Amino acid sequence: MKQLTKYSPLESPLENIFPGANHSQWQKTTAADVTEAIGNVPIVKLKNISPVCRVSECLLKLESCNPGGSIKEKNAVYLVTRAEEEGLLVPGGTIIESSSGNFGVGLAMVGAVRGYRVMIVVDAKTPPPFRRMLKAYGAELVDVPLHEADESGSMQKARMKKAQELAAIIPHAWYPCQHLNPLNTEAHSHYTAREIAAHFGSDLDAVVVGVSTAGQIMGIARYLRSQFPKIPIVGVDVLGSVIMGKPAKPYTMTGIGLSFFPPNLDLSLLDRAYVVPEDLAYSVCHILARREGLLLGASTGAIVAGGLHLARELGAGARILMINPDRGDRYLETVYDSDWLERHGFTLKQGEHLDNAISSLTPVYFEQC
C-alpha cells in the first residue's frame, strides 16, 4: 500500500492543495470576547446558480459567518457600546427590543457576555429556531398576539408599541428601537462598508443590499458614496412590503420588508431597487444550497435574485457584490421545509422557469442626489 507523505504544518505544500494559500495570511488573533469576533467575513464567487455567473463576477459577502450567524450582530455590538458610553445602559440594566429574529439574537448574544437582562418582543411570525436561539442565549420572549396586526397583517408596529411600554415600566431599561434609531446606520459605516472598501476599493460595479430598517443599506451607501461616488447601491425588498411604494399585502418573509417607510432610508442614495416575490426568493435559496453549497437565509434569496438580474443588465465583465445577511439553519422549519412551503402556497421554480422569473424582475429607479 502506498505510504502517505508526512509533512509538518510548516512544510505542508498547501500551494499545491489550495491554490493561493499563504501562511502569512493565516495569522490568528485572539478576540477578547465574542463581540470582537464579528466582521471580516468570507466573500465567495457564485459559479453554478446562473449562466450569468460564467461571464460576470457575482460575489456574495457571507455575513452569515459572524459568530451568531447574521449581520445584525454588528448593529447589536455597536448600539450597545454607544448606549454604554452615553450612560443609557448601565450595569445590571435591561435591553428591550422588538425583533423578528436576527437583531434580537445579536442583542441576546451581547447581553449574555456583558451581563444584561434581555427581553425580545416577538410574534407568531417569529420562526421556532429563532425562539430557541434567543432562549439559549438567556433572553426572555414577550409575545404580541396576532389580533394586534395592522391592516397589512404586519406585527411590527404592535411589537414596537409593546417594547416601548415595557421600557417605560422596567427600571434601567434601554430600548434601542432599531427601526427608528439613527445610529443603526452608523454600525454598517463603521463595520461593513469599511470592510468592502478595504477589500475592493472602487473595483465594483454595484453593491446589492436588502432593505428593512435601512441600517445596512444606508450605512454602506453613505460610506461608500463618500469614498467612491460612482459605485451604484441597489436595494432589495419583498413583495408585500410598502418601502418601495408597492401596495401592502401579507407576506411571510422575515429579514426584509416593512409595513411603513423606515425613517433612516434615503432613496436618493440608491441607484435602483428590486421588489422580489417570495416564491422566487425561496427558489433561489434552494438553488444556492444545491448548486453552490450555501445554506442561507430567506432574504438572501431575494438579494441574489436582484443581483443576478442586475448582472444580466450590466453585461459581461460586471463585478457585483451582494450582501448575505444570515444563515439558513434558522429557516429549516420554514423556507427549507416542503410542508411549510405547500401550506403557504409557494411552488419552487427550477431551471428555465427560475431563470425566466429572475429575468422578468422590473427594477424601481430613483432620482440621484
Set out the fold topology.
Blueprint: H1 14-17, E1 43-45, E2 57-62, H2 72-85, E3 94-98, H3 102-114, E4 117-123, H4 128-136, E5 140-144, H5 156-169, E6 173-174, H6 183-190, H7 192-200, E7 206-210, H8 215-227, E8 233-238, E9 272-276, H9 278-292, H10 298-314, E10 319-324, H11 338-343, H12 351-359, E11 364-365
Parallel strand pairs: 2-10, 3-4, 3-6, 4-5, 7-8, 7-10, 8-9
Antiparallel strand pairs: 1-2, 9-11
Question: What number is the mean pLDDT?
Answer: 91
Over all CA atoms, what is the radius of gyration? 21 Å
> How many DSSP-defined strands?
11
The secondary-structure class comes to alpha/beta
* Unreliable parts: 5-21
What order do the strands of the largest sheet run in, or round the barrel if closed?
1-2-10-7-8-9-11
Number of continuous helical runs: 12
**How far do the termini sit from each other?**
70 Å
- Approximately what portion of the residues adopt beta-strand conformation? 5-15%
Helix content: 25-40%
Identify the overall geometry.
Answer: globular
Domain Tryptophan synthase beta chain-like PALP: 34-326
Keywords: Pyridoxal phosphate
Pfam family, one: PALP
InterPro entries: Cys_Synth/Cystath_Beta-Synth, TrpB-like_PALP, TrpB-like_PALP_sf
